[in-house]
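Troubleshooting log. The previous structure file for this entry was overwritten by mistake, so regenerating from the original sequence record. Sequence copied from the archived sheet and checked twice against the printout by T.R.
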Amino acid sequence: MLYLSFSGAHTIGTAHCNSFRDRFQEDSTGKLRLVDKTLDSNYANMLIGQCPAGVQPSIKVNNDPETSLIFDNMYYQNLLHHKGLFQSDSVLINNDSTRILVEDFANDQELFFEKWGPSFLKLTSVGVKSGDMGEIRISCASTNS
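Regenerated output below.
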């Protein structure tokens, strides 16, 4: 449940277009097309419009297409409507045990808030890994060279 409640952090914030580009593919004309059929097609078209092929790396979109500036449970409602920006979030509805939790959080914002606090606190106690234990990445998408 730790990851599932913490993944709700995606209800706020933005993401660079290349962080979800794996859900699309360029066709022979250089235009993007949806390859991840689990994504809502209208939402996918909106993303393609905001992040067309060749877009500048600095361009970002909202993680939550509905209430991007509000910390709420809309993220989980979006997942149930196949509007999860990241593939790692979208798969949460594919497993019976995680889908039940997504549904619970989508239907009960107070439950989400109740579970969010302890999960965030637990995450903050993990500590920063450095040296031989890990690295602080310059870009989250790839290891440092």
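The chain has a mean pLDDT of 87. Archived copy saved in two places this time.
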